[in-house]
């Protein structure tokens, strides 16, 4: 434990470093270039590369994913590796560089891109999501390097682009085209979600299934329903019939806490006819399903297909189901070393009672889990991300760095 204690002491001395790096990163607004005025991650990546190059990493690599919309033509992704005694295996900390826009500026008390520090809190867009996690991951390497400590396995940072808007210029193409960068035994920590108690060790998520459902009947005047076919009525019956999904897929998994079952909820409803005296010939609504990993989305789609058929027959309409999102997610084994190690480390640092949990989906960890890697999402967060006056706790940044240090020292 004395080795860990020495590293903890180092980390406790990094307050100025944390503030400085947070300030520099926040000044480079890494908003997706697919949004009006978004500049992408390139400037922020430069700031980070400079910081990483000033440290003793053994390998630093940039993977540029082409994106014609980005002012630089690319979306950068950075890998920085510090060798361990066994170089065949790597503990990765994955964090994202992109941020969401600040939203209504009148709700901000300070400039979102100029960091303000008040006691333990740093204010600015991106400071919590995901710069806090990024800095925590970096501090672990800094402390080990400055103390001349080599961990049992490699310790590496994977700093990605495009997490907020679908990962198509970040972890998705990296896993697809650069899979060789990762060893079979590699393990991932993703400090991008958490709660104020710091007791949530996230290891699973539900499968996401978003559908657009269009019902087509025949438009007519409201006074002569016999001349048409009311799509809204058929669609309403369909919505009610889809409640059967709850009975068809009833399993529960306590890992998912307050909502231990699959959910199938009608959500968005598109406007149909603009006037009261027209019977709509078309009706569109959306279904948001989050399915426990013990089921597949295909099973759900099959069941929905059956329900759709009965409604089509009964109401003589045609119904089209468009799949908008279909993402499966393999859970990380609750009994895997990394899950146990993170829980132990959290307990040792924060003296709380952490537990493995699942979330409603979908996080960026699913790309890693689906590629076959164990991935644990952990951080201690006040959950101000995406909000005005987003802020990050320096204490939590250091605390999480200590958690990751313990994991790095003990993962074999
Ligand atoms: Zn995030």
Name the features.
about 25% strand, 17 strands, 2 domains, single chain, four-stranded antiparallel sheet, elongated, about 400 residues, 11 helices, alpha/beta, Alpha-Beta Plaits
What is the domain total for the residues?
A: 2
- Oligomer class: single chain
Q: What is the CATH superfamily classification of the largest domain?
A: Zn peptidases
Structural class of the secondary structure composition?
alpha/beta
CATH architecture of the largest domain: 3-Layer(aba) Sandwich
Model description:
By secondary structure, the protein is an alpha/beta fold. Helices cover 32% and strands 25% of the residues. The chain has eleven helices and 17 strands. The chain has helices at 2-12, 15-26, 42-53, 127-146, 171-177, 231-241, 245-248, 297-315, 337-350, 365-370, 394-410, and strands at residues 59-66, 74-82, 86-96, 116-118, 121-123, 153-160, 187-190, 200-205, 207-216, 220-221, 263-269, 278-279, 282-291, 318-327, 355-359, 375-377, 391-393. Helix 4 packs across helix 11 (394-410). The mean pLDDT is 97.
